[in-house]
Amino acid sequence: MDSVVEQISETIRSAARDKRPLRIRAGGTKDFYGGGLRGEILDVTSCRGIVDYEPTELTITARAGTPLAEIESALREKGQMLAFEPPHFGDVPSTVSGEDGSSALPDRRGKRATLGGCVAAGLSGPRRAYAGAVRDFVLGVRLVDGSGTELKFGGQVMKNVAGYDVSRLIAGSLGTLGVLLEVSMKVLPLPSSETTLRLKCGHADGIALMNTWAALPLPISATAWSAEHLYVRLSGARPAVKAAAGKLGGTIIDPVTAARFWADIREQTDPFFASPGGLWRLAVKSTSAPLNLAGIQLIEWGGALRWLRSDADAATIRAAAQAAGGHATLFRGGNKGDGVFHPLSEGLMKLHRRLKQTFDPAGILNAGRMYPEF
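^ that's the sequence the OP posted. Answer follows.
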């Protein structure tokens, strides 16, 4: 491992001297996300393997190039999981657990998606609103910055929080601050029971129901509204799940179909994501009324995440998201010339530039993946 780290460091030092851009890449499953790809590929797939796993401490440490499928398999063997339910966007079939915890059906997640890409992209799946986001589970990171210097932040257990905020900062930074070598994460037990319900309702009623449920002591682990139907997943102890299902009503979906439904939402293989138009990701206040935008929508996270397939212009979509207390990201397709991420205020842009200058003074790491300015 030391030779791999030294090779990465030397590559970065050489590129920094020559002002030569580098594109950090492992599985490449998130290449579509963010700004255009620029620079010479810095392959980090050789930086892989689980370093330490302590099931009793609910923590795991693995190298950044380790396939997510390998990590999730190791966790499942001990009845645990990555609670933020990360999407893979891979193309090699594996398996996904059914609602009863068994291996129920083939999944579209691939073995190419890696832990480093997962953390760098900062993307979470259906469970995010109820369990937390990627950054909430990052305990510590080891990385090489833009000057070729190896840095460590945080620790391997929740009690060791020195540098904790810096570790969380790396989540979602798209490799613009450094090359991840190793990540320590908190994990959670798999739920002992899960049930998914389907209710027929309109757009506004779906949002209202999700927000009503959020105020109640219910074991909800995922919600999604699409095509005049609202889906809710209940996870936890069997008596609690059964009682909640009886209280909410609706139709219980069989475990295999339910597992496939949530996998398709997470991996964006649901028919909604194949619809024409650019795919926009709108993060708004969960209580926001239905957004009056051209196209079709799929709603997750209790109303806080609105997926939009639309050919509407970026300014119109971003204005609607901002009016709803949030922001809009062009996730797939569309015209990236209008910017992928929501424009930052002057103060936030200044802060981002200072961070970039501190971690990557030569500006060579994944330049332009977040904003053209860095």
